[in-house]
Amino acid sequence: xTDLAIGLWGLSGPNTANGxxxxxxxxxxxxxxxxxxxxxxxxxxxxxxxxxxxxxxxLVNEALSVSEFANIPIFTKGGLRQSGEAxxxxxxxxxxxxxxxSAFSASYRRLGERTVDTYFLHGPTIDAFTxxxxxxxxxxxxxxxxxxxxxxxLRRSGLKNPAYLQAVSNDTFFDVIQLxxxxxxADVVTQLRGGLFSDKILFARSINGHGLLLKDAVxxxxxxxxxxxxxxxxxxxxxxxxxxxxxxxxxxxxxxVSRIRFLRSYALAVNVExxxxxxxxxxxxxxxxxxxxAPLDDDILRAFHNELK
Length: 309
Fold this sequence. Notes:
The protein has one domain: TIM Barrel, CATH 3.20.20. The protein contains 13 helices and 10 strands. The protein has an 8-stranded parallel beta barrel. It has a two-stranded antiparallel ribbon with strand order 2-3. With 309 residues, it is of the alpha/beta class. The two termini are 31 Å apart.
């Protein structure tokens, strides 16, 4: 059975790095959203030191401090930076062992010194996750009992790079891979179903394409200046989203389900241990955490992928 985790990116508020908007508009009473997710069976919390410049981790601590769900597993990430050297239009990153050690210590404090179930490198390069010095640093954190296991959180750009995917597949240190699983990355979904990362635990995120695949049409003017989706929508990606949404709408109507249900079943077609659901209000939590769905039928999936080509 696939677990459902609650993702905190959308609850953590605005964030900017190197002039890039990487957050969301503020949410009223985000802890209430988390508590409702706990009540409905959320199996874990997924955050990052980068979400809201650390606010996401503080929200985890606040939610777990005032609830009876204090032992819910925590996933967090490190490696992205608010500032630092980077090419224009890119996010500063560092996977230097000393930086990661410092970043983890800060995360650990914000999380109330709770053991982290899974600590992810956030969008790492191949050089980062094959660096023996960094792996030894991470092993020390595990030996100290502050982390149970480690993972790689893959960025969209990595999914388009066969050499990168092969390097991740060849890795033997990291137990968990977190990646977007949605029709926007149908080629990767096909590879996953064919055995890519078969020896890894998989966590699915962004199954609705940051909510873009639930819309009939998208335009950057639909989003405020603090909403990261405004920066995603260049001409090529906007057209990909539009075409994909049209096919999703046609198939979901044909089998008599909503788009969000179709996309959840689509993600379940991959053997994932957990789906990370983003929610920005209680209603979204209640919709997302009360669905009891089966994976998309193989024949429907093949027909759907053929239509996307």
